[in-house]
Every structure is written in structure tokens, then in C-alpha cells.
Design brief:
It catalyses: 4-CDP-2-C-methyl-D-erythritol + ATP = 4-CDP-2-C-methyl-D-erythritol 2-phosphate + ADP + H(+). InterPro entries: GHMP_kinase_C_dom (IPR013750), GHMP_kinase_C_sf (IPR036554), GHMP_kinase_N_dom (IPR006204), IspE (IPR004424), Ribosomal_Su5_D2-typ_SF (IPR020568), Ribsml_uS5_D2-typ_fold_subgr (IPR014721). Keywords: ATP-binding, Isoprene biosynthesis, Kinase, Nucleotide-binding, Transferase. Pathway: Isoprenoid biosynthesis; isopentenyl diphosphate biosynthesis via DXP pathway; isopentenyl diphosphate from 1-deoxy-D-xylulose 5-phosphate: step 3/6. Its EC number is 2.7.1.148. With 275 residues, the chain is an alpha+beta fold. It has two domains: 149 residues, Ribosomal Protein S5, domain 2 (2-Layer Sandwich); 120 residues, Alpha-Beta Plaits, CATH 3.30.70.890. It has nine helices and ten strands. Strands 1, 2, 3, 4, 5, 6, 7, 8, 9 and 10 form a ten-stranded mixed β-sheet that branches. A hairpin with a 3-residue loop joins strand 5 and strand 6. The longest helix is centred in the middle third of the chain and has 16 residues. The protein is globular. It binds cytidine-5'-monophosphate (C5P). Cytidine-5'-monophosphate binds next to strand 2 and helix 5.
Length: 275
């Protein structure tokens, strides 16, 4: 039996930083949804746990030691001889604000729980792997609060064609949080039942300004996306990946073509935001 899971890219449609805990972690209020596109993980029965990696962003990633997928495997109370040959096809840029490591860890938790017929590790263990792991395990549109432990499922009105753009810079999340001037921004107010895009357009990503200060090219990405007339465009997480949402698949494909022609060195991926 081989189990396959897609570790879908996590998109923060808005991300408000509304406070800071005494341990330094920031309190967030964010509307999150997932892309169809992501890393692909497979799990096959084996006597020990091993990890192999390929894919466009696999180079330089270690399949040993502290890889989050192996850390996820260590969260289970497995029996002697219960192992897994895990393979990761790394399609998402690393340290790019769209889940990456957390999405892989979440896919590993769900895939291994199925392979080993063991319960999913509890939410605290998931959160200890990475603040975005529980939301990636949930894998559906949601509002997240706290540092990621308070999860409220949401219904967004419809799927949207989406273009993801990363200017090939990796961003270290702690640096961006440290550079935040204002840590007490207003929270997300409750969203509407319909008309989510209009509502989201009025929200913010509070990490966008410090991320641009760290990597000014993010401002160029946002400007280039704006020129393709998306319904909504914004940076996700702590960057540098930005997203544009479009009315039709054609509009998204045209936007991606235009962006690739002007910026052949950027990572540009057409996908859908799933609801
Ligand atoms: O938990 P994760 O590994 O994703 O977080 C990386 C770092 O980002 C944390 O060590 C912390 O410095 C910062 N962070 C934060 N507030 C959050 C999430 C992350 O300050 N809510």
C-alpha cells in the first residue's frame, strides 16, 4: 500500500498581528485557505523511517536529522519494525510564506497516521512542530487565532483561479516578526457570508511592510501582480510569495504568462484557491 498526500500551499488571505505573548511568539488573526498546488509526499511500508527528496526545490534540503517530516514521524508511538519509506517531491519554494515545511509536516502526520493506523498526534504536539502545522492538518478555509492553535472553519463563497509569485528570495520568518514596529494592530472583524473578496481587500498583511524592508523586491512583485488586474493580491505569511486571485482561469493564465515574460527569473505558478 502506497499512500499519497499533497502538502498544499497555505495562503494567508489576510494576516493581522494583534499582540505578543510573553515567550515572544506573536498573536495572529488570519484568514487562511489552501492552494490545489503543493509538495507531493508518498509513504510506503518499510522497516525503518527513511526520507528521499527530489523536485524543483529539493536541492539542498536534508533528508536526515531535523527535517520536519522526520520530526513529524517521531511524534507517533510506533511499534518495533513499524517504519515508512517517505518520498518528498519538493515543488514549493523553501522559506517562502506559503507553509512549505509546516505543510510537509502536516502531510506526514496525516499520511503516517493512515499508514500505521495510529491516532494523529494531539494539537499541542502538532503546534510544537511549527505554528502553522495544525492549520495545515485542517487543510480547509479557516480563521486562525492565537499563534495557530485557535482554528475556526470558514466557508468562502467560491474557488478562485490563483497565481503564486516568488522572486526567488527566501525570507527568515523570525527576522520579519522582529522587525515589526507595531505589534498591536486591530484584529480581523468577522467576515461576511458572501462577498469575501471585497471584504478581504479591506484587510491587511501586517508582515508585508517589514518583509518589503528586508527584501524590497517584494514591492516589485506586488506591483507587477497589480498590473495584471487581479480581484485581490497580497503577500502570504512572512513572504516573499505573493498571490493574485482572478475571476477566470483564462485571466490567471494570461497574468502568469505576462509575469513570466517580464520576470523570467521569478517562480510563477498558476493554481486554484480551494474552498
Ligand atoms: O513555529 P514556526 O517555526 O513556524 O515559527 C518560526 C519563528 O517565527 C518563531 O520561532 C518565532 O520567532 C516567529 N513566530 C512568531 N509568532 C508566530 C509564529 C512565528 O513570532 N505566531
Amino acid at each position: 500500500m502506497i499512500i499519497k498526500r499533497v502538502a498544499r500551499a497555505k495562503i494567508n488571505l489576510c494576516l493581522h498581528v494583534i499582540g505578543q505573548r510573553s515567550d515572544g511568539y506573536h498573536l495572529l488573526d488570519s484568514v487562511v485557505a489552501f492552494a490545489e498546488y503543493g509538495d507531493v509526499l508518498t509513504f510506503a511500508p518499510s522497516e525503518s523511517v527513511t526520507l528521499s527528496i527530489n523536485g524543483p526545490f529539493g536541492d539542498g534540503l536534508s533528508g536526515t536529522g531535523d527535517n520536519l517530516i522526520l520530526q513529524a514521524a517521531r511524534c507517533f508511538d510506533r511499534k518495533n519494525g513499524q517504519g515508512a519509506a517517505i518520498h518528498l517531491e519538493k515543488n514549493l519554494p523553501v522559506a517562502s510564506g506559503i507553509g512549505g515545511g509546516s505543510a510537509d509536516a502536516a502531510a506526514a502526520l496525516v499520511g503516517l497516521s493512515e499508514l500505521w493506523e495510529l491516532p494523529l498526534p494531539d494539537p499541542e504536539k502538532q503546534l510544537a512542530l511549527g505554528a502553522d502545522v495544525p492549520i495545515c492538518v485542517a487543510g480547509q478555509p479557516l480563521r486562525m487565532r492565537g499563534i495557530g492553535e485557535v482554528i475556526e472553519p470558514l466557508e468562502l463563497d467560491q474557488d478562485h483561479p490563483m497565481v503564486l509569485v516568488n522572486p526567488n528570495v527566501s525570507v527568515a520568518t523570525p527576522k520579519i516578526f522582529k522587525a515589526l514596529n507595531n505589534k498591536d494592530n486591530p484584529a480581523v472583524i468577522d467576515g461576511p457570508q458572501t462577498g469575501w473578496i471585497d471584504w478581504l481587500a479591506k484587510q491587511r498583511n501586517d508582515l508585508q511592510a517589514p518583509a518589503i524592508a528586508h527584501s524590497p523586491v517584494i514591492a516589485n512583485v506586488l506591483q507587477a501582480l497589480k498590473q495584471t488586474a487581479p480581484m485581490l493580491s497580497r503577500m502570504s505569511g512572512s513572504g516573499a510569495t505573493c498571490f493574485g486571485l482572478y475571476q477566470t482561469d483564462n485571466a490567471a493564465q494570461e497574468a502568469a504568462l505576462r509575469l513570466s515574460a517580464r520576470h523570467p527569473d521569478w517562480w510563477i505558478q498558476t493554481t486554484r484557491l480551494t474552498t
